[in-house]
Amino acid sequence: MTTQVKKICCLGAGYVGGPTCAVIAYKCPHIQVTIVDVNETRINAWNSDNLPIYEPGLDKVVFDRRGKNLFFTTEVEKAINEADLIFVSVNTPTKKAGMGAGYAADLAYIESATRQIAEVARSSKIVVEKSTVPCRTAESMRTILEANSHDDIRFDILSNPEFLAEGTAINDLMFPDRVLIGGLQTPEGFKAQQALAEIYEQWVPKDKIITTNLWSSELSKLAANALLAQRISSINALSAICEATGADIDEVAYACGCDSRIGPRFLKASVGFGGSCFQKDILNLVYLSEQLNLPEVAAYWKQVVDINEYQKKRFVSRIIKTLFNTITNKKIAVLGFAFKKDTGDTRESAAITLCKDFIQENARVKIYDPKVSEQQIFYDLSEPGVTYDIKDLKKRVTVVQSAYEASTNADAIVVATEWDEFKELDFERIYKSMNKPAFIFDGRLILDAEKLKSIGFRVHTIGRANF
Ligand code: UDX
Ligand code: ADP
What secondary structure letter does DSSP report for 433? Predict the structure, then answer.
């Protein structure tokens, strides 16, 4: 079956636009997919052997279709003009200044992308909002498009939020739990929804493709992320009780997760959730609730983020207290810097907060992550809010190439990301190379605490007491 859409353009070659449209190209060889970005370095990387994002399985998909029906370019205007359907997958960071700073999403990139579509389009288009955005963004996009469009050109707006999780993006895209397409409840709106649905129908069972109105679709994305993050904050709040009582959070999560009404997923206690979505989307929901004059609702969701901050601070306090109430000039090996395993992404990673706190306490920090570059780590640690400039920072922080290098002469190891390779380390070797007493703080509950104790380590795990 051929769909009516023959050419797709995606604005934004990031973590969402790149993998999503690469999979569309892979699954729909009859559709030409062009991914554009204003960032030339990023586009060059997409056209090279070294893709700009690390995502298991992504290389295979891109290398299979690139140059055939998948293209990466900075020629935005040409790509817009040729396309029947345009995905808008640009970044929507939390606003740093002005109204709603710290909560609301900065829609400047969405707006400029929308204006660009309006300006250059010479034929009718379906414009699909793919970035996570506050409710009503589609409406604003529609207003901009309609006010600026030429002659007989019509724009149909759809909301098609992406639910992929980094690290499992390709699998999530190939086998999605659902695809959500929001549209205007008009004959034209339904037609546009149908055109997009036909693309997904090439590989997604029809009953998993949900169509709703625009508002439901936009809110569902924020709601899904808020509900997922809420589970993590709930289990993390319980982990504090476990540490104080002697209950074990993994046992509690297992016992609760066996209840089919609760289910086992997203109940892994941790040093705190990170990533580009959870915090941003919840704060968006908080802002929306306040705007709608629903302060109790706003306070309810805000608490999910507050517990996440508390969890990170609590872990740092435990580390300092255990290391005899001071970490000044102590050497701390931080294992993992990405916000979760199988990605090189560090956005809102708990490791950033931990490392900043260690630096502020004058510790010496050695960081190892299998996929995050030294440059990215220094960028994250020198962001505004930290008093150190890069030169000062480099006196306190070293980025190294292995967990062994990080641990040599260290007083403590802190596991910040759950990379599989950390489970396989030769801990006898590590123990021998460390200062004694040798401490391990497992912020991800991935290590075998009993085995480590038998080697001689003093082990502290989130959600477990050390009586
Ligand atoms: C999330 C949503 O899962 C995805 O549907 C949405 O499209 C984007 O936001 P992502 O942020 O990529 O995806 O990863 P996710 O697997 O949800 O993990 C987010 C954070 O929560 C990570 O820091 C992870 O380590 C943490 N986490 C996850 C836990 O601490 N415990 C868990 O049980 C699960
Ligand atoms: P996400 O995780 O949501 O995909 P990223 O920051 O990884 O976010 O990617 C968004 C991309 O969108 C960036 O590479 C950025 O350069 C690009 N971008 C922003 N504005 C535009 C625009 N008007 N046209 C094309 N690309 C854009």
Answer: H
Q: DSSP string of 109-124?
A: HHHHHHHHHHHH--S-
The CATH number of domain 245-467 is 3.40.50.2000: no
* Residue 28 among the catalytic residues: no
Rounded Cα gap, residues 357 and 55, in angstroms: 29
The CATH architecture assigned to 7-204 reads 3-Layer(aba) Sandwich (3.40)
Residues contributing to the annotated binding site: 12-17, 37, 42, 90-94, 131-132, 162-166, 221-225, 261, 268-274, 277-280, 339-340, 347, 444
pLDDT in tens, 266-294: 999 999 999 999 999 999 999 999 999 99
Q: Extract the annotated binding site for NAD(+).
A: 12-17, 37, 42, 90-94, 131-132, 166, 277-280, 347
Q: What is the pLDDT of residues 322-358, one digit of tens each?
A: 999 999 999 999 999 999 999 999 999 999 999 999 9
Same CATH fold assignment for domains 7-204 and 245-467: yes
**Ligand 2 and 176: CB distance under 6 A:** no
Task: Name the residue with the closest Cα to ligand 2, atom 7.
Answer: 14
Element (H, E) at 181: strand 179-183
